[in-house]
């Protein structure tokens, strides 16, 4: 695709997919060499500005000035890293510097300019400098060095001609490639095109990530209990792992043993897997909402912004729940999928929506459970759906629109995170106990030999495995 789009081209969105690498030993060493060279470029930018600060000179922060300094350094300064990859690091440094300067100018005195060195820095190559064919990726290197050919563990989910850039990075104990594509906004048929006048309210939550209600009485409720269970099980595993490895942790000033480095690498892999599971579940939940909106031709989603609750201390346990909620990421995922489908997203204040009757607009005492009832108009329904219906009547300016009486609702229940352990009986997490009502408890083992002078507390004819009947033949 051309870099400069024509005037008649339609709107586009940029999507990024993270794909793992399957390099050989030599390719892995070359990839880490590129990342270390990028870290050297970052360190050079920090040192140059440190020298200028000592001499009371103006900092070198603009991208053009940094590129001039890179050209003066000459080729071959940063090993196999080519000029395109080095400039991507300088672009990242320039953006971070000007972002910090803008925030300090706005009054945030605690914001610091970039000054921390990094051993490994992501490297980005733009369209025209790399070659992507199926699962094979050719990355450019410095002049005189052979190009780097790597293999992806899965094909890029976007057409090859739409990929605008690829980024090599190391995170979660693995080498990854971030492929960013430029995709056009979906064009629907005339009779199926979303109508901007049709609005639906979206209420965000922890137990239910999305509760959507339309003005026609239809609604969808997405359950996120599998996501919450994943957070809880991961927290329990993290605590147990830290207790088990506390004795092996190096003291202050010590380097650490090879066993400790293996333990830390295993912990990083587990943390990365947990984050990928939760991220995929949030994408599934947002896709359910967007598909429902397309089916009902909803062109505008009015989303309540609950980020104001993050500034209120609510205790150790509830603060942990709020941090695990990932409100900002949930909003970004929903907005990204909605824009790609041609649906507008508006953020409004959600204060009072869970304690306001959507039928008569009178205040209701917040219930302890999920169901709420109004003693003024005898309305009864799910609390999150009632909040979503109230959000559908609000506009970004703050003034509510005309209230439409709620008729008999048609609620669609969906569940996000079916890929998580324990969400499906066929993929039950082995850490969970088997159900008490029955089910397989595994292969029966032979009874231990009796101890002389002792008596088993189990009476004759009684089985230790409850609910399984008489004991079977022993091996």
Automatic annotation (TrEMBL):
InterPro entries noted in UniProt: Cas12f1-like_TNB (IPR010095), Transposase (IPR001959)
Highest taxon, organism lineage: Bacteria
One Pfam short name: Cas12f1-like_TNB
Region (Disordered) location: 237-262, 412-475
Keyword DNA-binding: yes
Residue ranges annotated for the Probable transposase IS891/IS1136/IS1341 domain, each copy included: 183-308
Keyword list, A-Z: DNA recombination, DNA-binding, Transposition
Keyword DNA-binding annotated: yes
Domain Cas12f1-like TNB: 329-389
Protein name: Transposase
Organism: Paractinoplanes deccanensis
């Amino acid at each position: 695709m051309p870099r400069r789009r024509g005037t008649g081209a339609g709107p586009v969105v940029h999507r990024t997919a993270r794909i793992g690498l399957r390099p050989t030993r030599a390719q892995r060493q070359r990839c880490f060499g590129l990342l270390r060279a990028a870290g050297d470029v970052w360190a050079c930018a920090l040192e140059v500005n440190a020298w200028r600060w000592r001499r009371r000179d103006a900092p070198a922060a603009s991208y053009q000035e940094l590129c001039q300094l890179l050209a003066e350094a000459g080729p071959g300064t940063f090993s196999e890293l080519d000029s395109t990859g080095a400039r991507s690091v300088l672009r990242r440094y320039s953006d971070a510097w000007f972002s910090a300067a803008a925030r300090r100018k706005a009054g945030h005195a605690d914001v610091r300019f970039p000054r921390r060195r990094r051993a490994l820095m992501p490297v980005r190559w733009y369209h025209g400098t790399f070659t992507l064919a199926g699962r094979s990726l050719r990355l450019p290197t410095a002049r005189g060095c052979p190009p780097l050919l790597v293999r992806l563990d899965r094909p890029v989910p976007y057409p090859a001609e739409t990929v605008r850039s690829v980024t090599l990075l190391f995170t979660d104990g693995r080498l990854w490639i971030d492929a960013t594509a430029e995709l056009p906004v979906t064009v629907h048929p005339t009779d199926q095109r979303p109508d901007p006048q049709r609005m639906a309210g979206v209420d965000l939550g922890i137990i239910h990530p999305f509760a959507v209600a339309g003005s026609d009485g239809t609604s969808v409720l997405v359950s996120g209990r599998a996501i919450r269970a994943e957070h809880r099980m991961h927290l329990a595993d993290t605590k147990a792992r830290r207790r088990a490895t506390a004795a092996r942790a190096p003291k202050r000033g010590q380097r650490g043993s090879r066993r400790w480095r293996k333990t830390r690498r295993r912990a990083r892999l587990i943390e990365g897997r947990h984050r990928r599971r939760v991220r995929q579940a949030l994408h599934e939940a947002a896709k359910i909402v967007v598909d429902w909106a397309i089916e009902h031709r909803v062109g505008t989603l009015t989303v309540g912004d609950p980020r104001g609750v993050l500034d209120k201390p609510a205790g150790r346990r509830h603060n942990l729940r709020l941090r695990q909620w990932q409100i900002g990421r949930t909003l970004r995922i929903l907005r990204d999928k909605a824009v790609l489908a041609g649906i507008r997203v508006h953020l409004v204040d959600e204060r009072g929506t869970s304690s306001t009757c959507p039928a008569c607009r009178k205040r209701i005492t917040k219930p302890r459970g999920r169901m709420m009832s109004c003693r003024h108009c005898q309305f009864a329904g799910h609390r999150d759906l009632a909040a979503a219906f109230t959000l559908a009547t609000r506009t970004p300016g703050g003034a509510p629109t005309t209230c439409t009486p709620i008729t008999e609702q048609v609620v669609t229940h969906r569940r996000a995170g079916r890929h998580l352990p324990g969400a499906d009986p066929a993929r039950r997490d082995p850490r969970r106990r088997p159900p008490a009502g029955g089910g397989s408890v595994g292969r029966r083992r032979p009874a231990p030999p009796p101890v002389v002078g002792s008596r088993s507390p189990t009476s004759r004819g009684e089985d230790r495995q409850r609910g399984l009947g008489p004991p079977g033949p022993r091996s």
